[in-house]
Amino acid sequence: MAIQLDIAITHLTSRKRQTLVSLVGVVLGVAFFLAVSSLMRGSEKDFIERLVDNSPHITVSDEFRTAGRQPAALAWPDGAVRISNVKPQTETRGIRGWRQKLEYVEALPGVRAAPVLMGSAVLTFAGREEGVSLSGVVPAMMKEVSTIEDRFVEGSLDTLAANPNGIVIGQGLADKFDLDMGSTVSVVSATGVTRAMKVVGIFRTGNAAYDESQTFAALKRVQVLLDRPNRVNRLIVQLDDPHRARDVATEVERTIGYKSVSWIEATEDIQSVLQVRNVIMYSVVSAILVVASFGIYNTISTIVMEKTRDIAILKSMGFRAADVQRVFLYEGLIVGAIGSFAGLLAGMAIMKGLEQVALKPPGVNDVIHLPVWWGADQFVLATAFAVLSSLAAAWLPARKAGRVHPVDILRGAS
Amino acid sequence: MTGEERAGAPTRTTPLAADAPVVLRAENVVRRLEGEVPVTLVDGVTLDIRRGEFVAIMGPSGSGKSSLLYLLGLLDVPSEGRVWLDGEDTSRYGEDELANRRLEKLGFVFQFHFLLAEFTVLDNVRLPMRRLGRRAPDEAEARARELLGHFGVAEQAHKRPSQLSGGQRQRVAIARALANDPLVVLADEPTGNLDSVSSANVRRILHDLTHEFGKTVVAVTHDGAFAAAADRRIGIVDGRIDESWRP
Questions:
Q1: Domain B21-241, CATH 3.40.190.10 — does that match?
Q2: Which ipTM value was assigned to this complex?
């Protein structure tokens, strides 16, 4: 064993109480770092997973990111063309040639897609009216790209397929209008078309606004209601690997021209909030370790003060300043390393305990467990931060020890 | 032979060779403390110390004896002048090189033994050898035990310094000073904190170092009996060599 390490261990073991206090500081710091980090990261991942599961990975809509250019501007791209008071041609909204475009998208590897025609309608029942969002879907295709099938309380997408005049509504809307399976409601579109439709399914997602305002019906029926025959205005795309969404969306948009928005792009604001939350969280939990490092600083500073004479003797013997510094850096390293290891074990025990905590939030039927994340990088981060802050705490006293001039001490001692 | 049996007035049994090489040379050495009121601790000292010589540096308190010893021992660097060790001009060395020279060629004994309290006697003696790293662990331990045996403290090898008497601690300190087989042993008031029996013992041991081990011993002392055992006495007054000074 290196002699500096031997001296460092001797210093620490001869001050058991001080060393223990420093160790406990690091252990608590690492343990709480892990507990908080695993909860925060766990809730973030849970949130993202829900986001990815409950919304399309890519939505192709009947819009363009930039307005189409006028023929004159296209003809003279480098010319000083000024066009004013243009009245654009009125066009029927929707994705042109959507079947071909759908075929192209479905041909991409690991990609599933379904057409949707979305619009607004007013649902009336027993003299009451409610504005709803009406989506026309192909049930068999919708099952492939959406988790809505799993959210059915009664009925299913198959019952919608079997009943072209049916409508699927949310639990919130059913409760509001006191609707049951088989109830008939009147649906009026913005174009004035009215249809009586039978409730063939009720879903519940847990999102109150969605459950009160979203309805589904067969695509052909909705095309008639909205007076947009053979049109769809959305292609909903689902990927085997959701993290490829941005790349695939870019590729799709480049090829078919219509605006393709990935879930990553759509939730950029939420993700930036999550990132800010992570920075705040890591700042707070790191502060615990910084406070713990003050304990190490205190212990090693005390040792340096108490051992000034020993330092002078070591230097008179031929120890260099770097040798002396190393003794005290080793002390910081030992406390940091042992504290980190014990802190990892304590942190994992706390994480196990947190995983057992069961909650039943209002409005949710199922008992949920705290989302604890067991990712390796937080263990590495906690250990690295604890060891580095321990070394940093040891650095100042170590530097002071290295600068001890033996003659000053020997002269004073004698 | 125990340490107590070694007590008694030492006498040189072999004459110091006149052509013995100079191992330590101070060449017009000045040590000045700068400040609002500069203080000169050592003021133009020039001296040669030969191999195997036992030199006592004497003088009144505050005369600069210890300061001169620290300069000769490379613990301090002169403000002016040069210190030569074993034919090397040490003024060109940085702190690390001076530390290496101390480790290899010098051994120190202080008034207060200055053993490391948390280490055993054996570990204290092994310390310089472990730092130098030229001996295998077994070899270093064997040499430490041999030195402790030679100075009559072998049985204390596994005790802490606090469990030893003052005389025993000082003998352990001498063993530690000899661990790396240095050319010169420098002692600062080595008997200043001991009773008369222990003082006589340490005096005998340091004297014997010059004869049995061929070491050079330079000791600062106020002890007249200690100085009498030396081959040469150097008087220091106000930081300068004063040939006429007598205790």
A1: no
A2: 0.87
